[in-house]
Write a structure and sequence with these properties.
By secondary structure, this protein is of the alpha/beta class. It has four helices and six strands. It has a four-stranded mixed sheet with strand order 1-4-3-2. Strand 5, helix 2 and strand 6 form a beta-alpha-beta unit. The protein is elongated and about 70 Å long.
């Protein structure tokens, strides 16, 4: 496996030569090197993974993105599959791809502020609301809590019972029985 590090200015020529040599773009992602010491250049880079099908080889290219905002020439004209990969790196890391035909957010709303995969993006910017969930539905016996664990009367699937001996989840068609019911009572429900 071959690995190369290039700056943004050399990227279009290298990408063109890789295309002409039969390499196929497999993946492209943005990297924030804020705390990494490896490599020269700016804080941001992209990492592109390539496959050569005939030679059964892999190659990795690291492209440093300089400037503020960080910028790299787009390779969508060479590999149309790079379209969504570049948009994802733009959306989540803030790397601008010069010459991209539609460089817009792909995962986050248009009014989202910042780029959440940057290492200096503040944690806790999105308020999280924890909503209590309803009682779980189980598919078979022995997965559910018993009446003592649940704190209420439950049917054989662990669902709370409502008036009339019917499960809260409407599971009477499964032949649910009350906990502690006698076999004669079970026959009446069949």
């Amino acid at each position: 496996m071959e690995t190369k590090w290039v700056d943004a200015g050399a990227w279009p020529d290298l990408a063109r030569s890789l295309t002409e040599d039969g390499w196929w773009l497999a993946d492209l992602c943005g990297v924030d090197r804020l705390t990494l010491t490896r490599g020269e250049g700016g804080r941001f880079e992209i990492v592109a993974q390539f496959l050569h099908r005939k030679r059964r080889e892999r190659a990795t290219v690291h492209v440093a993105a300089a400037g503020d905002p960080p910028a790299i020439p787009s390779i969508v004209e060479l590999w149309p599959s790079a379209d969504f990969m570049e948009r994802e790196a733009f959306d989540l890391m803030g790397i601008v791809f010069e010459g991209h035909p539609n460089l817009t957010r792909i995962m986050l709303p248009d009014d989202w502020e910042g780029h959440p995969l940057r290492k200096d993006y503040g944690v806790g910017k999105v308020p999280i609301e924890f909503i209590p969930q309803p009682f779980l539905q189980f598919d078979s016996p022995h997965q559910q809590p018993n009446s003592q664990e649940a704190g209420v009367a439950v049917d054989r699937l662990g669902q709370p019972e409502i008036e009339g001996g019917q499960a809260a989840g409407g599971l009477s068609h499964f032949g649910d029985t009350k906990i502690g019911a006698s076999p004669e009572e079970d026959e009446d429900h069949s």
